[in-house]
Every structure is written in C-alpha cells, then in structure tokens.
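worker-03 picked up job from queue 'complexes'. Input manifest follows; two sequence lines, order preserved.
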Amino acid sequence: MLGRTANGLFWMYRYLERAENTARLIETGQRIALTRLDSTDDEWRSVLKTAGVFDGFGQLHDNVTKDAAIDWLLRARDNPSSVYSCICAARQNARSVRTALTGEVWEAVNRIYMSAQDVLARKVSERDLPKVLGQIRQGTALVRGSTLGTMLRNDFFDFARIGTFLERADQTARILDVKYYVLLPSVRSVGSSIDNVQWEIILRSVSARGGFRVAYDNAYDPKDIARFLILDGRMPRSLQFCLSKLDSNLTFLANTYGTEPAPALLKVRDMRRGYLDQDIEHIFELGLHEFLQTVLNDLAGLGRQIEVDYRFYE
Amino acid sequence: MSDKPIYDEMWGTEESLRGPYQGFHQWWEGEDVKGLRAKQREADELFRLTGITFNVYGRAEAEERLIPFDIIPRIISGYEWQKLSRGIEQRVRAINAFLYDIYHRQEIVKAGRIPAEMISRNAAFLPHMIGVEPPAGVYTHIVGIDLVRTGDNEFYVLEDNARTPSGVSYMLENRETMLQMFPELFSRNRVREVETYPADLRRSLAACAPKTAGSSPCVAVLTPGIYNSAYFEHAFLADKMGVELVEGHDLQIVDGRVAMRTTEGYKPIDVLYRRVDDDFLDPLNLNPESQLGVPGILDVYRAGRVTIANAPGTGIADDKAIYSYMPEIVEFYTGERPLLENVPTWRCSDPESLAYVLDNLPELVVKEVHGSGGYGMLIGPTATKKDLAAFRRKLKARPSNYIAQPTLALSTCPIFTRAGLSPRHVDLRPFVLVSPEGIKITPGGLTRVALKKGSLVVNSSQGGGTKDTWVLED
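worker-03 finished. Artifact:
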C-alpha cells in the first residue's frame, strides 16, 4: 500500500475520533451548565482547554461565553478541531484514499459529511443541540461500525485503527490533565459537591459513567477514577486499552510485512512497560500531572515515528 | 440546420415506435408519472451518497456537483451496434497506425496526404516521441469516439478522444443505478452487460506491459489529485480494477524504473494509466512547473521500461484540424473506405474555407482546434449578433485556430420531465480498449444529453446530463 494511503487512513480516522470526542465534550459542558446551578462559564474555559482549542478561541474572543464556546467547538471554520472542520478533513482524507475503503465505509463518511453540511450550516439553537450532537455521534458510530463490519483485516485496517487509538489516547490523557488537580488527594475535601461535579465531568467526557458504576460501585473515589481511565484494560478509552490496541495493530503490521518490530512498535512497548505496568499509587507518587505530560509527549513522538516508519511523506 | 425533421431514437421521424424501444415502451405504458418522479429523486440521492460527483473548474475548490442522470435509457439494437463497432474498430486501428507513422517515417506526409506543417507545427505533436517504440506497439490504449446520429442509418464521428477520454465511470454507475431501481426492465429486455469494463481494462493494460515486467505486471492509475474534475472517476477505476491510485509525489525513478512509495519501501510499476495531461507528465523533460508528474519518467518510457497509457503525444490524433483529415487517414492505413462518416469540416487556415465560413457563420458550428469540453465554441443558429461579431473578429485574427462544421441535427432521445417524456438532443461516446490481444468495445458507452430544450450542447460542464445506454441482444 502507498505511504500516502496509510497517511490518509490514519488521519481520516483520527479526525473522526476527534469529531466524536469534541461532540462529547460539548454534551458534557452543556449538561453541567444545565443541571449544576453553581457552575460558571469557567467550565467552558476548561472544556476549550481539554479540546486543545482554547488558544485559537482566545485570539478571536475577549471572554468565554457559553454560546461562543459551543459555536467554536461545533461549527467554527477557523477552528481546525471543530466538529465541522474535523468531519470535512475526515472526508477529504477519505476521498484521497477512496480506493482503500469499502463502499459502505465511504458512504458512511459521505453521509456524516452531508448531514454536517446540512445541520451545521447555521448556528445551532440550544433546543436543537442535543439532536445535532446525537446525529454526529451516530454518524461516527456508523463509520466505525461499517469499518469493523466490512474492511479486510489487512494493513489498511491497521492504519485506520492506529489513527483511532492514537487520537483517543491523546484525548483521554488531555481530559485528565486539564482536571488532574481535582483528582489529587491534597485538594480532596471528601463529599464536597464541587469535587463531585468535576469527577462527573471527567467520566461523562469519556462516556464512562455507566462503566465506572459497574466496575467500581457508585461511590466516586478520585483514585479509582484515575485508575479506571489510565490503567483499566476493560475501559475502551483508557490509556491502557488504547496502547494495547496500538501495540497489537503495529504488531500486525510487522507480521504482515514480515519485518522486525518497527521503532514505533518498540516505543509503544516501552510506554506500556514504563508506566502502565505499575499501580495507581505509584503514578500519584510520581505526580499525576508530570505523568500525563510524559504520556502526551510520548504520544506525539509516537505519531511522528509512525509517519517515518511507514513513509507517510517520503 | 436543414429543414429535415429531427430523428428521435424512440420514434424515428415518422412518430412510429422503433423496434429497440418496444420492450421499454410496454413497460412505460404501465408506469405512472408520480411513481417515476419518486424514482428519479431516489436516483439522485443514490448518486449523491456514493459521491459520484465532478469538481467544477474555476469554482470554490470544495464544490462538487452531480451530473444530472435521466432514467429513460437510450437503446441501440444489436444490428446497429454491430455496424457501429466495425466502424469504430477500423477508425481506432487507423489512429494507432497514424500515430506510429508520424512519430517514425511519416509516410503519410511523404505521400502528400497531409501537409507537413499540420504535423510539425502542431502543438500536440511531441518531438520527444520521435523514433520511440511504445511497449506492445500501442499508442491509444483507451479511446472514446464521440458519435452523433442524424437519421436511421446516418452516424457521424464528431470527435476522436485519443488522450484521456473520461466518462466511463458514469457509463458503469448509470447501469448500476438502473439495475437497482428498475430490475424488471432488465428481465424484460436482453441488455448486453457493461460491468466487465474494469476487468477488461486491467487485462488490456497488463497486456501492454513492457518486456521488463514479470508475469503479473503492476498496474497503477495516476491522478492529478482530489481537486481534479474527474477525480471521482480516477478513484473509481483504480478501485474497480483493484490497483493503486497514485499521485505524482508518490512516484520516483528508482533503479531506472518508475516506482511508488509504499509503506514497505519503493515498488516498481509496469503500466501507468495516467489521467494527467502530456505537458504535466514530466517536469524534467516537459513543463518544468508541473507538480503532478514524475521527473524523468519520459526517459524511463523511452528506455522501454514502463508503459504509459495513453502514450505521450497521442493528442495529435484528436486534434480538430487533424480530424478533418480522418477519412484520408483511415483510407491510407487500412486501404478501406471509412465505415463511419466524418462531419464535413472547413479548416479556416485555408483562405477559401475561411471566406465561406465568414459568409455562412449563422448556420455553422465553429470550434477551437485545441478546445474541449464545449468551451470556446460558437453555435451559429443559436448565437446572438454580438457573439457572431465577436467570432468574426477572432476568425480573422487567428484563422488557423479554428475549424467550422455544419450544424448537425443531432438525434433526440426522450428524457423524463414533469410532463412525461420529452425529446432532447443526445450524442454517444463508446469506449474502446486496444492491446495486442485485440480491440474491445464495451457495448453501449456514455450517452450525453442536453437537458435544455433545443440545446445542442451535451457537455456535462455546460449543463448536460447522462443516460444509461443499452445495446440489445437481437
């Protein structure tokens, strides 16, 4: 397969994952704003930070308001990570790798693009917001579903999955890092309602409230939340889960090509050994923030290594 | 235009139902217009969803448009098709022989059948190709012959597309759409299949591989990229053939062969079906500004280590000035009378012809010698006084840039409108594959239709649509 095709698949799925995650962040922000009367527009600041788009927002806006934040995250053409921009970029990549996709996957991407063109053409009213966000999540789910259901399990598929899980790991690490302080024991005041809101935001942002309840009871314990999102291999958005997927897809590639493990694969294995084989206490001892910064740096480096290993550009 | 009644594919000139349309007409009688309207919308939705679009040049880069699809098929009898295909085959053989000749001994010039300057001063003549032996001896691997009809037994060739004819994806998708929407039509009519085209194309291309290729040659499609107007078709063909779709920056010359950058390193390509114009093919040998080509590919080609389809320099065979010599060309190389008619053509470079054209401008169609896509042409009968005056000036300023032809009464074929069936002018582009294994013509081709009442311009870039084209098994 062409290096350019690998690149296109990788980014197509990264952008779809990002669109979905951003939609989920907007949903979370809106939910908190509506149900927690003590919440403030500060919460939207942290949503923007989590999505990694706060700086761009700041260049065009003087202060953070709910409407402006939602519009920036959802529709802004100037924001390359807005849901709309991500969907357009995903489809652009899909077009350039059209021959690597099954007809069903292509139609699913085209469908979400057409519906985004339609529902995101104008500002979305508060009343329509849940429906629009639902449509987007359904759209990305359809792409994922047709990918899993129709694509050959070959190198095309591996690059699609690598893009997905690299983006997802990055997102989970960022959500934790923006909120890391509320998980620290030092500022933990047991039972305070503020902490509860913050913990709920974290779990909602990764669609994990139900999963957490099943795995750890109903009581929110910050250490459990951190453990769940970082180390729990059952949780499909945890760092552990994402890295194990990256490991297996990169291993598939090495096997398919009959080569030694590529530098990117060695890097993933190092990451897993280095910080996912330990328990959560140890991570807190190291410093949660420092730990997450290391993870984010390593993920960025991993992305660059994959580009080189598989000749995305030259 | 003469006063002769216009020939209709369904009704002829006598308003009596023609044979090939009998099965269709029976079906049509049992349908109601409202139900069909819903079907037409369904078809449009299908096209949009599968992304069968073309990009419009000169517009916002993101703009993608659908080519309107009309659900009424254009139907050709097996007998008509047999006659047409013999004529097409003859013509395509002549074109290949002509190309070989003008890039070698130029016998046709020596014989005085074509003036030397028609070749040597032609912008589409590529000196790099002089003396080059194309792999398997084939110049035009894929040809699209544009035909028009003016009467029961009157077909004319309007144009030979010998560079990179497009539209074959519409031929295939139109059929798919019809099969999905009206399966019953295909149980009632014995329609010859077209869906083997991609497999035929791949086999035909592979059969033209250079000697350096192994037993299963590597074929790839070269596209200018996603902003090209025909990108959908490039991706479609690569997909259906099961070969890579490459862009110039994926390719490099490695060890004297053209190679593509894969995730596992560079891999040689034997046959490149290029959808990039000659000029952009090789920045080292041709246009140095090109970002779309491969530096040095022409040298590899001349060394016989890659097949480029169609060969560089084939454009000269579909040049509109050369077109006017096609009857001589066919006779010269096949020794036979041409089976398909040429439209009478005045070359404005000739002073007498120019005088005639200027005198009769309102009745004529004037085309630029190197134009395509229906741009830069004048249709006398429908032109305004201002248009006519502007063209008079252009003709006088650069006569050799133009040819003129009588305005043909193109046949019509019914399209589906709100009011039911309504006739519109059509043409036909059959697709031809050439390889040492022979010449293969897909039964049917692409029917283009001018959707505006009375209009003679069928080009999709100018508001034309397409139809499914049937060749019946008699």
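worker-03 released lock.
The interface with chain B takes residues 1-6, 92, 95-96, 98-99, 103, 106-107, 110-111, 114, 155, 253, 257, 259, 310-311, 314 of chain A (CB under 8 Å).
Chain A is about 75% helix and 0% strand.
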